[in-house]
Structures are given as C-alpha cells and as structure tokens.
Design brief:
Layout: E1 13-16, E2 23-25, H1 27-34, H2 38-47, H3 51-58, H4 63-73, H5 78-86, E3 92-95, H6 97-107, E4 113-118, H7 125-131, E5 140-143, H8 144-147, H9 154-163, E6 171-175, H10 178-187, E7 190-193, H11 197-206
C-alpha cells in the first residue's frame, strides 16, 4: 500500500511483523505429520485449534487456559489438542531467508531504526528467541501476548509509537495480514502489504531504503 504521498528518504523507522514475513509459521507443518489425512486435518484446524483460538493466546490468554478450554469441549481430541503447544516448534519451517537478508541490509543503514510488532504468545516467544538469532537485531519490539492486546487493535499501534517515541510520518509498517495493514493505515502509519521478499525489496527500493 505504498502510495505517492511518500517523501523519499523521509522514513527513519521500519516496523516488521514476524510470522509470515520473517518466520515461516504454519500449524499445518506439524499437523500433517500427526494427522496425515488432509480432510480430517483441515477439519481439525478449521474447527478446533483454529487461528481465531490461537489469536486469543497472542492477546494474552495463557496456553493452559486455552488448552483446557478445548479439551473440555472436545475431549475425544485431547491428544491432538495437546500437540499444538507441546510440538509448537514443528510449526516453524525456519526463517524466510529473503526477508532476513533484506533486514540484514537495512541494518547497515545506521540512520534507520528497526522494530518488531508481532502477534505472538508471551509463552512461546522466548522459545523463538532461542531459535532465531535475527530476533535480537531489533532496536525494540512489541510482543502482543506480553501486552495483553494484539493487532489489529488500535492500542497496539499506539503502544509501539509511544514506547519508542516514533513519528508516524517517518515510520513504515510491514505485515503479511491485510487486516493489520488496514488498521495501521487507519491509525496513520504508512504500510507495505508483504507478499514476497522480492516484492518487498522492490517496494523498499522504490522508497530509496535499499
């Protein structure tokens, strides 16, 4: 959603989403090993361990409370429900290397500050910090589960702007979820809808950031 209203070289802050932009995360990576039948697996992920259910943990609900809720509702699926967080690392297919390379290049520009704004459980994020060195490169980060709010709620955009004293007019936000992009734009943060590292590189070059 990069528009003509950008002033070249006016961007001083870049905010990255993590999952889907820098890290390839998908519950299907793990569940296809646990539930080989694709029809049943899709039903399970669309009915029981859904993305909406997962987002409540991103917003601060504990894993224990979330897991117990589902086991109470679907006791016959207890083993598969427990696997969601017991085998959580298997949902990570590694870094999205093309985007990590762009991040590395952007870090070379000492005039830029780079931040993370992620919907992520406070209980699993420390495990990600061990797995991915580049998560330590940011000048600051907001992890939704630690703040008890999440994208696309307005307060999380206010939080990152205020905590790090950012000027919205000098900030750009990158996310793969259009819902989050639209919320950021409405709040006044210029944004790029991430679709691939190649397209992101082109957008950043257009803004003279690479």
């Amino acid at each position: 959603m990069v528009g003509k209203y950008y002033k070249m070289n006016s961007i001083k802050n870049i905010i990255f989403d993590l999952g889907g932009v820098l890290i390839d995360w998908n519950p299907d990576y793990m569940y296809k090993k646990l539930i080989p039948d694709i029809e049943y697996r899709n039903w399970f992920l669309n009915t029981i361990c859904t993305l909406d259910w997962n987002e409540k943990q991103d917003g601060g609900r504990t894993i224990e409370a979330a897991t117990n809720e589902l086991i109470t509702q679907f006791p016959e699926h207890k083993e598969n429900i427990l696997a969601y967080y017991n085998r959580w690392e298997e949902m990570l297919n590694g870094p999205i290397s093309g985007t990590v390379d762009l991040f590395r290049n952007l870090k070379e520009d000492k005039s830029l500050k780079i931040y993370a704004l992620t919907n992520w459980s406070a209980e699993t994020f420390p495990r990600a910090l061990v797995l991915f060195d580049f998560l330590h490169w940011f000048d600051g980060r907001i992890v939704s589960g630690e703040e008890n709010t999440r994208k696309p709620h307005k307060e999380i955009y206010e939080l990152i702007i205020n905590r790090f004293s950012l000027n919205k007019e000098e900030t750009i936000f990158i996310d793969d979820n259009l819902r989050n992009i639209l919320a950021a734009e409405e709040f006044g943060i210029k944004s790029i809808h991430f679709k691939s590292p190649e397209l992101l590189k082109s957008s950043l070059q257009g803004l003279q950031l690479l």
